[in-house]
Amino acid sequence: METAGLAGLSRQSGLMREMDVVAQNIANANTPGYRREGIIFSEYVTRMGEGPSLSLAYGNARHTDQTQAGLTQTGGTFDLAIQGDGFFRVATPDGDGLTRAGVFLVSAEGVLVTPDGHQLLDAGGAPVSIPPNVQQIAVALDGAVTADGVPIAQIGLWQAVDPALVTRQQGTMFRADDVEPVDGGTIVQGFLEDSNVSVMSEMARMIAVQRAYELGQSFLEAEHERQKTAIQIMGR
Predict the structure, then answer these.
(1) Which terminus has fewer CB within 10 Å in the chain: N or C?
(2) Nearest CA to 12 among 187, 222, 218?
(3) Where in the sequence is the domain holding 117, given as residue range(s)?
């Protein structure tokens, strides 16, 4: 395949990945704590021997929008929203994860867990335990947890030492190898943070990507016809 076809295919491949990301954003528009994702396109230039270089579109890098979303009141005792910086830290089979999704439940062992069963960790990195037979659980803005007025835990908020190294594991779960406590964020009990996805913006983005893909497909078809015609002429 000639360089024009390779350049066109690299662009189409990146646009397909962007379409997948847009679809994922729209699917999670109502998922608490979800963070919008985008594709970053760059140019990759490779040397082609003695001839001209080949410029390819490289669309493998992803960017996560960490913009604060709105809060929705639920009244749930273990529904917690973060306002400001930071993540909840949870224990997963692949290591500690970071999340803004504050939907927690009390497990059979009496510890707070996510719907997937991952334990919520306190400021010291230990699971947050809830005593049995308590009447009222209160969570203060600084993460202090009390049971019937007695302090029992301190929920921590964490951030990556280098925000650029935060990677998405799946859905609302992120991971960073080096984390540190956050001082600026607050925890609001009885609320959940919304997804920061704008459905209208993502729909407009989907249409733009689809049109760009169709234009690229037309170019590839025209290039195919050009090569086909050239081969037929040379074969006479």
Answers:
(1) C
(2) 218
(3) 71-193
